[in-house]
Amino acid sequence: MNVVCIIQARVSSNRLPGKVLMKILDTPILEHIVNFLKFSKSIDKIVIATSDENSDNSVCDLAESIGIDFFRGSLHDVLKRYYDCATKFNADLIVRITADNPLIDPELVDNVINTCKKFECDYASNMIQQSFPSGYLVEVLTYSTLQNLYHTQHDLDSREHVTPHIRKNPNLFTTKQIFAPKNMDRPNWRLTLDYQEDFLLISEIFAHLFKQNSFIKYEQVFNLLNSNPNLLKINRHH
User: Fold this and answer.
1) How far apart are CA 159 and CA 167, in angstroms?
2) Secondary structure of residue 178 in the 3-state scheme
3) Cα gap 34→13, rounded to integer Å
4) What is the pLDDT of residues 85-94, one digit of tens each?
5) Exposed/middle/buried for 207, CB within 10 Å: 0-12, 13-18, 19+?
6) pLDDT beyond 90 at 193
């Protein structure tokens, strides 16, 4: 099976414009995400899917500079962007990653991919009953499932967020859930990037844990924040 990881990225964020290109330790966040995902043992290709708006030319420039394929499609119809991108790159399994999750753990990604393969399901994710923090959410779905969504779901929520129809109607699909390791479930931790305070917290985590030519494991982040709960106060009001 051809496993294509599609990272959706745009610079026109309402809450924190340009966040995907903000730098942590002199490297754009989107580049950190790509570098972490390269440690996956189950992904065959990584593609950055951005919009065809001029504002996202900088995303394409970054993709070219780091040697990663990119795809340009609809700004607001993200479901169409995913479907067209998956079609172009002949994906059998699609891994959906968003560019506001700089701490994504490739071992978790592989777990979701391998679960989807093992059980031959339509959709595998750690989002149905969330046990990981926001910022670690991973979805894997088959091309036929994505095609089904594209042709049947026309509400704004589905077109923008791609997969809510699956989670609202699990009886219509074969699904599998991935849960955080025992005693490491922290669904209330906010480790995604939407506000300046999120950026400050994630920058602190990188400052403590990042090493060149490696990735940051969820277990490391868990241990750091469990031992230093004051760090979580940085973005708590969000």
Assistant:
1) 14
2) coil
3) 19
4) 999 999 999 9
5) exposed
6) yes
Q: What is the pLDDT of residue 166?
A: 97
Beta bridge partners, 97, equal 7
Helix orientation angle between 218-227 and 196-209, rounded to the nearest 10 degrees: 100
Over residues 132-154, the pLDDT tens digits come to 999 999 999 999 999 999 999 99
DSSP assignments along 74-136, one per residue: -SS-HHHHHHHHHHHTT-SEEEEEETT-TT--HHHHHHHHHHHHHHT-SEEESTTTT-SPBT-
Candidates 1, 28, 30; CA nearest to 141 is 1
CB of 40 within 8 A of CB of 110? Answer: yes
Q: Give the count of beta carbons closer than 10 Å to the beta carbon of residue 62.
A: 20
- 139 burial class (0-12, 13-18, 19+ CB within 10 angstroms)? buried
72: tokens are 């340009």
Helix, strand, coil % (nearest 5) of the chain? 45, 15, 40
- pTM assigned to the model: 0.97
| Residue 138 to residue 182: CA distance in whole angstroms | 19
CB contact at 8 A, 84 and 71: yes
The tokens 């704004």 sit on which residue?
156
